[in-house]
Amino acid sequence: MVGDPVGHSLSPAMHNAAIAALGLDAAYLALRTSRDAFPALARALVAAGGGLNVTIPYKRAAADLLDRPSDAVRRTGACNTLWADGAALAGDNTDVAAVRGAAAALLADRGPRRALLLGSGGSARAVAVASADAWPGAEIAVVSRDAARAAEFAAWAEKHGVGCRVWGAEDQGPVDLVVNATPLGLAPGDPLPLAADRLGRLAPAAVLDLVYARGETALVRAARERGIAAADGRGVLVAQGAAAFERWFGVAAPLEVMRAAVEDALRP
Question: Cα dihedral sign for 181, 162, 129, 140?
């Protein structure tokens, strides 16, 4: 796995547990790298026979490296899983299906009419495409610390058939689903990605936080205190990781082993 930061990631524990369970001759490592060094490192790792996960902030850069992008990569412009396909560099965005499944489980078969999306990076693109696939006609409102990036994201989404606009200061809701696709929550002192009082006013049916943390994230706890169905990113982590594992090794991923490794690591 390559990104910056990587120290928080449970992907090594999850994948190494799966590798051990199946007796495979492999190891999964987390490598922190700079933006300038990322392309050469990614190509070298795959050329050496490895598979690769990409995390923040390089998912969009990874898509630009591919010779054979999957449909999910073409639609999102972001890639989180790379492997060699002969002499070609292939890639997929396994986040899309993972997010779709996690959101659907929270909404209990009720699709959102309006979703509030916090963030505008590669993970946010997966959320937008997953929402458009699962709930045609749903509207996504995007929030970013950078107004220009929010506008760019909304324009990208509309171009790709996703109903999206920038969330304005005057917007009060209600919304059906809130998704945090920012890194806020990784560090113990991070502020909430959405203020608790504002979360209460929006009164969404569900909150999905793509960040995961020991004892769950502060955003998930704040949502549950208000009677809102909520989940952190552990389920998404396992689902997208299992899909990547199957791409690399060509065998069914041991889901229960992977899930147990993540739950053990996140137990308070």
Answer: positive
Kindly report, residue by residue over 140-195, the tens digit of the pLDDT: 999 999 999 999 999 999 998 899 999 987 787 789 999 999 999 988 889 999 99
- Strand partners of residue 209: 180
Residue range 105-123: mean pLDDT, rounded:
91
Specify the CATH number of the domain 96-232: 3.40.50.720
User: Which of 239, 264, 267 shows the shortest CA–CA distance to 253?
Assistant: 239
CATH architecture of 2-93+237-266: 3-Layer(aba) Sandwich (3.40)
Residue 20 burial by CB count (10 A; 0-12/13-18/19+): exposed, middle or buried?
middle
Active site residues: 59
Alpha-helical regions (H) of 23-94: 38-47, 59-63, 71-76
Question: What pTM was computed for the model?
Answer: 0.94
